[in-house]
Design goal:
Blueprint lengths: L1 E5 L3 H12 L3 E5 L3 H8 L10 H10 L3 E4 L2 H7 L2 E4 L14 H13 L4 E5 L7 H15 L6 E5 L9 H7 L3 E4 L3 H11 L9 E4 L1 H32 L3 H9 L20 H14 L5 H13 L2 H9 L8 E5 L14 H11 L3 E5 L4 H8 L5 E3 L3 H5 L4 E4 L11 H7 L4 E4 L6 H6 L3 E3 L8
Parallel strand pairs: 1-2, 1-4, 2-3, 4-5, 5-6, 7-8, 9-10, 9-12, 10-11, 12-13, 13-14
Bound molecules: nicotinamide-adenine-dinucleotide (NAD).
Organism: Pistricoccus aurantiacus
Family: Belongs to the UDP-glucose/GDP-mannose dehydrogenase family.
Pathway: Nucleotide-sugar biosynthesis; UDP-alpha-D-glucuronate biosynthesis; UDP-alpha-D-glucuronate from UDP-alpha-D-glucose: step 1/1
Amino acid sequence: MKITIFGTGYVGLVTGTCLADAGHEVLCMDVDENKIARLKDGEIPIFEPGLESMVKSNVAGGRLDFTTDPVAAVGFGQLQFIAVGTPPDEDGSADLQYVLSVADTIGRHMTDYKVIVDKSTVPVGTADRVSQTVAAALEGRGESIEFDVCSNPEFLKEGAAIKDFTHGARIIVGTESERVMRLMRECYAPYNRHHEKMMFMDVRAAELTKYAANAMLATKISFMNEIANLAERLGADVEQVRRGIGSDPRIGYSFIYPGCGYGGSCFPKDVQALAHTATEVDYQPELLNAVEAVNFRQKKTLYTKLAQAFDGDLKGRTIALWGLAFKPNTDDMRDAPSRTLMEALWEAGATVQAFDPEAMKECRRIYGERDDLVLVADRVQAVKGADALVICTEWKDFRIVDFDWLKRQLSTPVIVDGRNLFDPQAAKEAGLMYYGVGRGDSL
Ligand code: NAD
């Protein structure tokens, strides 16, 4: 099949590359000329394990190409995927300007039947708005060309995006059209061979499914952080509680790790957008608001613990950070807890000395050159001469540490472990002042 993808971010680039790898012909379009130029040169603008070689082999195989030309993009595929960003607006609602701009582009340039596939995470009712936008653009040209709009939300996780796309638990398509069902089946056939993964449902249900999934996962995280905060005050170790409840199959072990709050480009904005949608239909989203409020507070926990360790005075201190990305295996720092911490430290007059295996460039791009941000080449240099160490991201490389060595590096032996990577007892026995999240007497 010939397929066009609008947007070459985490979702668009992975979708386009995987569909090309499955044998389709794919043209990816982006308005960012720099991104497209880099992709054409074989350079991948994001870090995603396995993606670079897959892009290169499919470009070499002639199945994957990139363009900034909207006319070529609309002319290319019968399927037109919209995978552009839907960032939060000031009121928390999803900003649909990029999605609707693509819809307008399609309406202005299409010359034959198209299926427009909403892959971006968009509020319930967006398919109707996309449809209206395309129809209005066609009407402006005095044309009447048939098209359909369907919803095909994406569930991939950054860091495991290729595996999630190719081996996802389900492929959801919101449509009532038999023709669209047939075409979407053809598109995903290579990934639907082992067992039936395609779920067809109505468009609104598909749109809501994406928000419900992310809100559920965010709820599990905030719930566990609430329990961690309680455990801390009650003298219990939340890690033992986690194992205790995770063993119940009705609860399960995934997404119940206590920590310094969720970040990234999806959970924060999607919980807020769903809460906003609720208020638009006169429903008070008590639970969603609480999930968001607990997370907001949790992201401050690293700073609170550090400030307590230094009697509230962090001025002139150097704080080592291990991890900047919002989670391991990505360079994405959108809404990362590390940002909440760094900004609070700078406000307090401290210097940050940080290392992340992939997010250093992104950190520099966001904050620029500044005296109180020192980015170093590895985790060893990050702790050299620092007063304290904070773990913000649970990268595998950070899990094993020689505590005696660490104690010699830090001028005040304070560790704030925002991901509960270490055994508090072992850290304390080595003479470190260890502060985890919800680890009983570690506060
Ligand atoms: P991103 O910000 O990484 O990429 C979006 C891309 O769209 C950018 O390259 C931008 O230049 C491009 N763009 C903007 N306007 C355009 C236009 N008019 N035409 C062509 N390109 C345009 O975003 P992302 O993380 O890939 O997310 C895209 C959507 O998928 C969002 O709605 C997001 O919520 C959803 N989603 C993201 C993830 C994730 O893990 N990142 C997972 C599932 C769903």
